[in-house]
Write a structure and sequence with these properties.
By secondary structure, the chain is mainly beta. It contains no helices and 13 strands. The strands form two sheets. It has an eight-stranded antiparallel beta sheet, with no helix packed on it. The N and C termini lie close together (6 Å).
Length: 174
């Protein structure tokens, strides 16, 4: 249980290079604050079997020096589904985070966990807004299998040097 992240190589056949890992235990967030720079064009963050202390929605913030948390710093669009055939969708044209659908993920005490993959593109580019793609799978708050995909965008064009994953309520227990 925890997380790891890697990045594609800028050249040399597209190999993935492991950069760092972290572990969360009763943590309000898991933060990656080093090694995000101009070395690679794409960074992948992979969070395996994350458990939350309460039913919640995972959220992401990015920034440089600190995490951006202003009420209009991000835009995101999310779509997902779970058995038996319910569809979730969420979007925001101005938010303080990038969301994975609100209030839909089950806490670990009920056997729920989530696996999350986040792709961050061109973090050092200062000409364009920053795009992230994410995929999440796990259990919904009613206990059904749930899968979702989304895209998030940091509205500012400044470079990104850090990424944070946190629950909308409670903590990351493992």
């Amino acid at each position: 249980n925890g997380s790891a992240w890697a990045s594609t190589a800028a050249a040399g056949g597209g190999a993935w290079n492991f950069i760092s890992s972290g572990t969360a235990s009763a943590s309000s967030s898991i933060d990656f604050t080093t090694n995000i720079d101009s070395t690679y064009d794409v960074y992948m963050f992979y969070f395996v079997d994350f458990e939350f202390s309460a039913d919640c929605s995972p959220r992401v913030r990015v920034g440089a020096g600190s995490f951006d948390s202003g009420s209009t710093d991000y835009q995101y669009a999310y779509g997902g589904n779970h058995a038996p055939a319910a569809v979730h969708a969420a979007c925001s044209g101005g938010a303080a985070f990038m969301g994975f659908g609100e209030g839909t993920w089950q806490d670990g005490s009920s056997g729920g966990s989530a696996t999350i993959r986040i792709m961050l593109y061109a973090p050092s580019d200062t000409t364009h807004k920053k795009n992230l793609e994410y995929t999440i799978s796990g259990q919904s708050s009613n206990g059904y299998a749930l899968h979702g995909e989304g895209v998030g965008q940091r509205v500012a064009t400044s470079a990104i040097t850090r990424l944070q994953l946190y629950p909308s309520t409670g903590t990351i227990t493992s």
